[in-house]
Design a protein that fits this description.
By secondary structure, the protein is α+β, with helices and mostly antiparallel strands. The chain folds into 4 domains: 286 residues, Thrombin, subunit H, CATH 2.40.10; 77 residues, Alpha-Beta Plaits (2-Layer Sandwich), CATH 3.30.70; 310 residues, 3-Layer(aba) Sandwich (Rossmann fold), CATH 3.40.50; 71 residues, no CATH class. It is built from 29 helices and 28 strands. It has a 7-stranded antiparallel β-sheet with strand order 5-4-1-2-3-7-6. Strands 21-22-20-23-24-25-26 form a 7-stranded parallel β-sheet, sandwiched between helices. Helix 17 runs parallel beside helix 20, helix 26 packs across helix 27 and helix 26 packs across helix 29.
């Protein structure tokens, strides 16, 4: 898809360049219009188009000209209403593959059962048959997701396409459009006729040069957006319309409207990149675009859409199967006779004769829209554990649709697994306006279901405002625009750690690179040369190690260039690649995946970063990464993971891809689905390294699960970080307070800053795991018969090699694991001779399965699960500055309120009176009991 989009952009650039003189003239004239020097109507040199545009106003010529020329300041409300109504004809197209949602586009209804989109979105009937269109996928006036409806596409009923590449041997190529039929009813049974049709009209006059456009789109599969920020039509070029760039490239298939008429003028299909004289694409800062650059860094000069008139003309001539002739005739017939009476739900108007003999819409209120009833229903998601009784499982598979009102989807979580423990895990989607916990209670009342838990968004352990200003925290990035200013003095690192054992001498000697890399010294990496024995074996085998990162994705920061494996990356959010979209603002922490990955693969940048001074753990003596991180994007924000299914799918994919190590630098409260996949990963021999948590009394999930490696955080004084989570599940501690990591300045320059969190401790251990497994790869491949033994061998060596007296006193093993990570000592741990089978068997025989003797956690009552979800999210939100106070108990169901009273011995209103009086101690106590039940 990326190559396709690049080819489209190159074609668009060619079109743009061929009319550059006209574009420059029109842009100059637009400036003069804004300054009041000329009228908008004076820009249009084609008098016939101007005449048609005047006719569409439906008033006397002088009045029409006055209205057109004044459109920059005023717009008739009827046109705004029309645009809003037309926007409901626009839907999000989702294409599917083995991983689920892997691609998005936009499309819109142009006939009662036909949609229009790009060929590069739906190139052939096979792709279309595996795709859906989702209408009303948008936020309501309160910012909450509304009720949406998904419809299957039916290419066997109607499918016509024009390839995006022009082929001289194919006269019907080069327009990049697809028209395909849609099912009459949605997955929930809603009729397609509830949605309006945006009729296409091939007559001229819908828009003139310099006039504003409106683009209705689902950018990158996001909620529906209408772009109205002074986007001007620039010029027509053959079959294409070129307009100023204020849209997001990637909004393929968007509806382009003329703001003055509210009519469809084009099908958006590509952006136009700015180039240098060598033909290289340019960034907004003037530098050359690099592989993997996000769209928002590229300097897009304009956008290109396919003209409606050109699409209709080709549809008249293109050959179609006999069975599709009727559909084409209906589409073209309605296009010729654009009237409200032609077909139900059409947003258009009656026609009248224009002065040039063409038919144009009359200027009256002409809406015959059937709006779907607002019933408040929405799609809700649940993880389900079926009864252990086989007959009940069989009945569920056969009769779930009849058992669950509004059931949209019912699928096994482990579709290919033959393990008995996996067969009773299901994932369902239900269309309902009820409280999700009430739905779960109804479903748990069925004899076929043991437990049912709503799959709701999960707040993580990382929140804004934890620790004050930047340089000791993970907070400033969430409070402003996602950037920081480099300053070691203002950050107080040199002051705070002036007497710290690991930095004192380096600070006094003003050895910046040494004290900035204190974390490498803390884990005993400074004297290791991975290019020499006894460590050379690790370096040689590292290229065979699959190291998967579950985070917010990757960026192209200089510190990590070449450190990511972008051939195996996956995106479990919107189905594109795993690039971090770098969204800023509250609940965003752009670049978190890059910062944590830098602890593994951070390279020497040869002064490309002015204040460099740290490298990753898995690098050679020259600072070159020896392993590549495979980024799996599971979250847009480290403070909100989203649905647990994203995390589940990511781990399942890592298992299927034979990953060796997973590391995850965020977490949340335990839940059955994640417990199951963590145990499965463990039994497949995957070393899953997890952050213990930040400013939470209890170790969070997935670190709390027995099979994972839980990591707490230490500081430059080789002491524990005061905000690190702690408890018996912790295996090891590693540097996490004031670690030097990559960031962006306010000028979008690559810089380094000091950040804190167990997020940074975790990749130290993941790096060590990669080095350890690479060193012992031959032994493990030959002797380990039970995959989980690999995890336990690593845990054994990790604990045995830990620095147990980092400050000359005994380490607190009960709360922070066996000590601080010591990589050198870890890699010197001995395994039996590879040919001494007796000694090998003795070693492996002593290893214990992490879940042995630990029964599967009894499912807590649904009321308790709701309470935990509520308490966790409320406690996390309370750490957000400015969060509004209020009654925190009002959203709980009665069942949850009873569970609160039962667990605390106090009335719910005394436990949860308000945000300002929220009982933190009581909350931590309840969460601790629940969390520890999973270990």
């Amino acid at each position: 898809m990326e190559d396709t989009l690049r080819e489209l952009a190159e074609q668009a650039y060619s079109n743009y360049s061929s009319v550059l003189n006209d574009i420059d003239r029109i842009k100059t004239d637009i400036t003069h219009v804004r300054q009041g020097k000329v009228e908008l109507s004076e820009i249009q040199t084609d008098k016939r188009r101007l005449s048609n545009r005047i006719s569409r106003e439906g008033t006397a010529e002088l009045q029409a000209l006055e209205r057109i020329n004044g459109e920059a300041n005023f717009q008739d409300i009827r046109i705004v209403r029309r645009i809003v109504e037309l926007s409901r004809a626009v839907g999000r197209i989702t294409t599917n593959s083995r991983l689920g949602n892997t691609g998005y586009g936009t499309g819109f209804l142009i006939a009662p059962n036909l949609i229009l989109t790009n060929n590069h979105v739906l190139p052939d009937p096979q792709v279309a048959s595996n795709s859906t269109i989702q209408f009303d996928y948008e936020l309501d006036q309160h910012g909450n997701p509304g009720a949406s409806e998904s419809f299957n596409l039916l290419p066997e009923t109607f499918f016509v396409t024009s390839n995006y590449t022009k082929n001289i041997e194919d006269p019907f190529s080069g327009l990049d459009f697809t028209v395909v039929a849609v099912a009459e009813s949605s997955h929930a049974g809603t009729p397609l006729t509830d949605f309006p049709v945006a009729r296409l009209d091939k007559k001229l006059g819908k828009i003139i040069d310099g006039e504003n456009c409106v683009i209705v789109q689902h950018p990158k599969g996001d909620y529906k957006k209408i772009v109205m920020k002074d986007i001007r039509m620039l010029v027509l070029k053959d079959d294409f319309l070129i307009y100023e760039s204020d849209t997001l490239p990637g909004s393929s298939g968007s509806m382009v409207l003329g703001l003055g008429t509210g009519e469809v003028v084009a099908l958006h299909h590509s952006g136009v990149p700015r180039k240098n004289r060598h033909g290289q694409w340019l960034r907004k800062d003037g530098s050359v675009v690099q592989p993997g650059d996000p769209d928002n860094l590229i300097d897009w000069m304009g956008n290109e859409g396919i003209r409606v008139s050109s699409i209709l003309k080709m549809l008249e001539r293109i050959p179609v199967a006999e069975s599709m002739e009727r559909g084409r005739a209906e589409l073209l017939g309605s296009a010729r006779n654009v009237s409200a009476a032609s077909v139900r739900n059409t947003v258009s108007g009656p026609t009248h004769a224009a002065s040039n003999g063409e038919e144009t819409p009359a200027p009256q209120n002409y809406y015959s829209m059937n709006r779907s009833e607002s019933v408040g229903s929405r799609t809700q998601y649940f993880e389900v554990q079926l009864s252990g009784v086989k007959e009940m499982q069989k009945d569920w598979k056969e009769n779930a649709t009849g058992l669950v009102p509004g059931l949209l989807l019912n699928e096994p979580l482990y579709p290919m697994s033959t393990e008995a423990s996996h067969r009773n895990f299901y994932y369902i989607q239900v269309r309902s306006d009820k409280n999700p916990w009430e739905i779960a209670a109804d479903l748990e009342g069925l004899p076929q279901i043991e437990t049912c838990t709503p799959d709701l968004e999960m707040s993580t352990d990382i929140r804004e405002g934890h620790y004050g200003r930047w340089s000791g925290n993970e907070s400033l990035e969430s409070l402003d625009d996602g950037t920081a200013d480099w300053s070691e003095s203002e950050g107080n690192f040199r002051i705070r750690w002036a007497n710290a054992r690991l930095v004192k001498a380096h600070i006094q000697g003003n050895k910046h690179r040494e004290y900035r890399a204190w974390n490498r010294e803390a884990v005993n990496m400074c004297e290791i040369d991975l290019g020499k024995e006894p460590f050379k074996t690790s370096a040689k085998n590292l290229e065979k190690i699959r190291l998967v990162q579950l985070d917010t994705g990757y960026t192209d920061h200089n510190k990590v260039l070449g450190g990511f494996d972008l051939l195996q990356d996956e995106d479990f959010i919107d189905g594109e690649d795993a690039r971090d979209e770098m969204d800023t603002g509250i609940l965003r922490q752009p670049g978190h995946g890059t910062r944590t990955a830098s602890i593994v693969v951070g390279r020497q940048t040869n002064d490309r970063i002015e204040n460099d001074g740290n490298t990753g753990i898995a690098v050679d003596s020259s600072g070159r990464p020896l392993v590549k991180v495979i980024p799996y994007r599971i979250s847009k924000s480290v403070v909100l993971i989203g649905r647990g299914r994203n995390l589940f799918n990511a781990v399942l994919q890592a298992i299927n891809a034979n990953a060796d190590i997973i590391f995850m630098c965020m977490g949340s409260y335990p839940r059955p689905m994640i417990y199951s996949i963590a145990k499965t990963a463990y039994e497949r021999g995957i070393i899953w390294v997890c952050a213990a948590g930040n400013k939470v009394e209890s170790v969070i999930a997935p670190a709390v699960y027995p099979g994972t490696i839980a990591v707490a955080a230490s500081n430059p004084n080789n002491d524990v970080w005061k905000y690190s989570s702690y408890g018996t599940p912790v295996d090891i501690t590693a540097p996490g307070e004031d670690v030097y990591v990559p960031f962006k300045s306010k000028k979008q320059e690559d810089i380094m800053v000091f950040g804190s969190g167990t997020s940074y401790a975790t990749p130290h251990v993941a790096s060590a795991a990669a080095l350890w497994k690479a060193k012992h790869l031959d032994f493990l491949n030959k002797h380990v018969k039970k995959p989980w033994q690999t995890v336990e061998l690593f845990r054994k060596h990790l604990k045995a090699s830990a620095n147990k007296k980092p400050n000359g006193r005994e380490w607190d093993k009960d709360r922070f694991g066996d000590g601080i990570l010591d990589v050198r000592n870890l890699l010197q741990q001995k395994l039996p001779d590879i040919d001494d089978q007796t000694e090998v068997d003795a070693l492996l025989g002593k290893l214990e399965h992490a879940y042995a003797g630990k029964e599967k956690p009894e499912p807590w009552d649904l009321g308790v699960r709701e309470t935990i979800h509520f308490l966790w999210n409320t406690a996390r939100r309370k750490l957000t500055p400015g969060f509004e106070s209020g009654n925190v108990g009002e959203a709980l169901t009665e069942r949850a309120r009873i569970s609160v009273a039962a667990m605390t011995g106090r009335p719910v209103n005394k436990v949860l009176e308000s945000y300002s009086q929220f009982d933190d101690d009581q909350t931590e106590s309840l969460l601790k009991v629940y969390f520890e039940s999973f270990n």
